[in-house]
Amino acid sequence: MTLLTMEAVLGCAPDDASAKAARGLTAAGKWPLLGADAAAAWGECQGSGARPYQTQVDFSGPAFRCSCPSRKFPCKHGLALLMLRVQAPQLFTAQAAPPWVSEWLASRSGKAQRKEARQADQAGQPPAQSPHATQADLADPATAAAPASLAASPGTARRQTLRWQRIQTAGTDLQRWLADQLAAGLGALDPARLQAWQTMAARLVDAQAPGLAYRLREAAAGVQQRDADWPERTLQCLGLLQLACEALQGREQLPPAVQADLRSAVGWPHDQAEVLAGGDQVPDRWTVLGLVTEEREDKLTERRVWLHGARSGRRAWLLDHAYAGRGFEQVWLAGSSVQATLAFFPGAAALRALCATAPGTLDAPVWPAAPLSAEWDRIAARVAACPWIGLHPLVVRDGVALQAGDGWLVAADGRALPLQIGESDAWALLAVSGGRPCHLMGEWDGHALRPLTAWAADTPSVSPPLWQRSNA
Amino acid sequence: MSTPAPSTQHAAGEAPGQTPGAVPGAVPGQAPGPAPATVWAPLLPMAMVGINRPGLALPAWPGEIGRLIALAVAGSDGNAATGMLRAAAVLATCGAAGAQGRPWPHALPAPAPADSLPAWPEGAALPDIAWAMHDGPARLAPLVFVALAQAGRRLPAALLPQALELGRRALALRPLLAPVLGERGRWLAARRTEWRYAADGAADGSTGDPPLPRHWQDGSLAQRLALLRRERASDPAAARTRLAAALPGLPAKERAEFTAVLADGLGQADEALLDQLRADRSREVRQAACDLLLRLPGAAHPQRAAARVAALLGRERTLLLRQRWVIAAPGAAGPDWKADNIDPVRPGHDSLGERAWWLYQLVRQVPLGWWTGQLGLDPAGLLTWARGTDWAEALLRGWRDVLLAAPDPAWCEAWLDAWPADLLRDDPAVVLALLPPVARERHWLRQLRASAVPLHASVQQILAAVPPGELLGAPLSAALAQALAVALAPGRAGAEHLLRTSLPELCAVLDPAALDRLASCPDSADAPPSWAATRHTVTQVVAVRRALLQLPPTRTP
């Protein structure tokens, strides 16, 4: 447990206010009872009421529970309890779990067993409601709301064929339209003509291809911002759109994996139940390399978790969304590892996954040890398999974070990657690294690295992270 | 037709350094100049003007990617725009596959030197300390610095940015911060303009950038004052010469502020200039000069004043055949008074009569030390004596003026012990503020016991007087804790809002022994909701204070 850090615990706070409140709940005097065993930690926290709140963390998962009325998850008491467990284990003097702890643990393990049994019984039958609703799923009520049991029915097959046809038609239109744009020249783009790009994007949404619409809007935004390199950035976007349009035309001749990637690229989400029942299931000890939580429009929070399998060596990407700062049911702590089975989405990229089993007990991280060149090879292979992947997990070993003019970069192996990092995060990283090499994990978009986690270069591979991107 | 999907070979086949222009634009901070040409460059002109212009043809790219582009373009059925889009598709994909940042041929900046001081001990209440630095009351962070310095330790690296930020905002924190920064902290401070005050070789760590000589000509008032003060500290005579030369050209307000600088390192050599300034056009400057002369008992001006008062003193025999001092007020204004800054015209609304006014004017020019020497009485005895004369108010007002101009601890104590509330309308806090903080505690104790001043006002006074990083003494702390326990007892929770809000700050300056008493102060059911938050903060502050007390000292070799 000492392998976690305060920052990692705060990293799973549903919002800044919760993190700040949790930081202010660490006085031992606030906790008349603190106890822990191998499976869980529990405590009673004195709130404003007469009765203290009963707070508990099951290390398996991990999972939080608290008797406080907060609708945030995890609540500040749960965060503070785990933070205390990490930083001041000597305070946890109670050893026998009180009934309110043991009963909860028992119900949780019972639930997990029932779930596994159910999954064994009904392999292929999706659970009625999956916690992992993606943004694309949410944007696509047709799929999200459709009863999943219809997935394999003949009516569904017909609907799917119809939908592919609609998308294909839209792709053909888009391709012609793209050619028209280039025939006229990007230099002639003015606000009025860019409005036509938005109209085209709206038509793509109507044709149930929101993924293509998203790329087109991104290209339009780049034109509007007019950064120094906007023409080539725009051409990149348009080139990848062209690739998607042509792939749509020849879709039936493509290998099934590429077809699956194409479906993701046009923004037609895969059915989560099918993913969970799919063939690419990887049990492993998964280390949370890093995670980032971002506010999206309409009070939607997006969380991206990047995992590394100790045995398989595979990387995985978990994408979740939550509304209105509620937080996420499944908690991931940067720099910890858990035993879990991941189900990968179909496709040649094989990056995005769902967690198919309840994760096991929190354990020390197993950081990847491959040199940077191997990381680049991994990315090259992934892009070759699926050119539409926008974000890649990248581990930069022995990188030196440094200031360069107004910005920041990481230098490693005689090369430099620009860092996408906020000022306070950057100074914190510089403070803990002291200008010495450290290992840095982040999201690479082909242009810049958004660092999420750093760990020390000169310590064993199981040490806790040195630094973690703040939620802000 | 098949999609021209690149294989791994294409991407991996590129040697580093020939990366297709996937990171366009200069790396921030590199010398500005034209962005390096990328593989996109040949495509850009026609993409901008439109591919259908006559005479335009797609360029060719070298190597395997060039062949792939040629193949893709050949399949576009002669549509130039589609060909260009296909070329862009190949370039975008291969660019993404081969992007590896930019070459970095530059030397890396020197890392922070290794630290010799031990860091914060593992597991020692780090969350509490992090809270103290980020969200705690302002007086808590300095205590952390002091405790660390006493234990011979340095701040954990993760807390350095916040510590340097605190020091940037508060000059008084900087001397406390310096010993616990360690090599890492000084190295970090050197990397950011706002933190450079704490870097190696910074001026003196407490005053920010040193003033430059040119500031005397073109600097702001603050810069010129800083420059004069520095010179006064190192070479008092040079500073005096500089001041004397500059004074005639300055506006009245600036003349007064510059004159005040002479208080630092004041000496007999300053008398001539001060005498000259007694004739300044500005009343403020004349007063400042007279006040400073009071601190030079050997100077001619206070000596003349003492001689005038001496002429008014006499001795008379009491009933018990003992001698005692008596004083008379002047019968008329002297002709030489004007030249010596004595104002013979009594303001119409003053409570003193005309002769008393004259006496007051004379007394306020005589150093206090003269009285103790002349009458053979200590300050307390003099105060008693003055109250027995017919001219008590004139004497007390004169002495008060002199005390404020040239503070004297023994006189302060005497005043505070026997405050003439019937004759002076001043707040004793004015005199209390003249004492060093430690010497004030006795009077605060008495103030608390007397209950004449509201408790929250006393607390505010005390908080304002404690320098960062210092604590109140045990007796005062105990008395405060006692008074607070009474004031905040259950049933009175609705009142004392002002007191509650200053409680967290107060907990950061109390002696540790008094903390337990406050921490165990019982909750009451009728407390307003904000009280729960305050109590919570108090608990946190107490936890931090205890953690600091338990900080293990480093072993001395």
Quote the average pLDDT of chain B.
Answer: 83
How much of the sequence lies in strands of chain B comes to under 5%
Gyration radius from CA atoms of chain A, angstroms:
24 Å
Q: Main sheet of chain A? A: 6 strands, antiparallel
Number of β-strand runs of chain A? 15
Main β-sheet of chain B, in a few words? Answer: 2 strands, antiparallel
| Radius of gyration of CA atoms of chain B, rounded to a whole number | 38 Å
> Which structural class matches the secondary elements of chain A?
alpha+beta
Structural class of chain B: mainly alpha
SSE pattern of chain A: HHEEEEHHHHHHHHHHEEEEEHEEEHEEE
The total count of helices of chain A amounts to: 14
In order across it, which strands form the biggest sheet of chain A?
Answer: 12-11-10-13-14-15
Give the low-confidence spans of chain B: 1-35, 203-208
Largest interface: A-B, 86 and 92 residues
Q: In one word, what is the shape of chain B? A: elongated
| Helical percentage of chain A | 25-40%
Question: Percent range for helical residues of chain B?
Answer: 40-55%
Provide structural commentary.
The complex is a heterodimer of chains A (472) and B (557). By secondary structure, chain A is α+β, with helices and mostly antiparallel strands. In chain A, 39% of the residues lie in helices and 22% in strands. In chain A, strands 12-11-10-13-14-15 form a six-stranded antiparallel beta sheet, with helices on both faces. In chain A, β13 (438-444) and β14 (449-456) form a beta hairpin. Chain B has 557 residues and is mainly alpha-helical. Helices cover 52% and strands 2% of the residues of chain B. Chain B has helices at residues 8-12, 44-49, 63-74, 80-98, 126-134, 140-150, 160-169, 174-177, 182-190, 215-218, 221-234, 236-246, 252-260, 271-277, 283-294, 300-310, 354-363, 368-375, 379-388, 392-405, 409-417, 428-432, 437-450, 455-465, 474-487, 497-501, 503-507, 512-519, 529-549, and strands spanning 102-103, 313-317, 323-327. In chain B, β2 (313-317) and β3 form a beta hairpin. In chain B, 38% of the residues are buried. At the A-B interface, α3, α7, α10, α13 and β10 of A face α1, α2, α4, β1 and α5 of B.
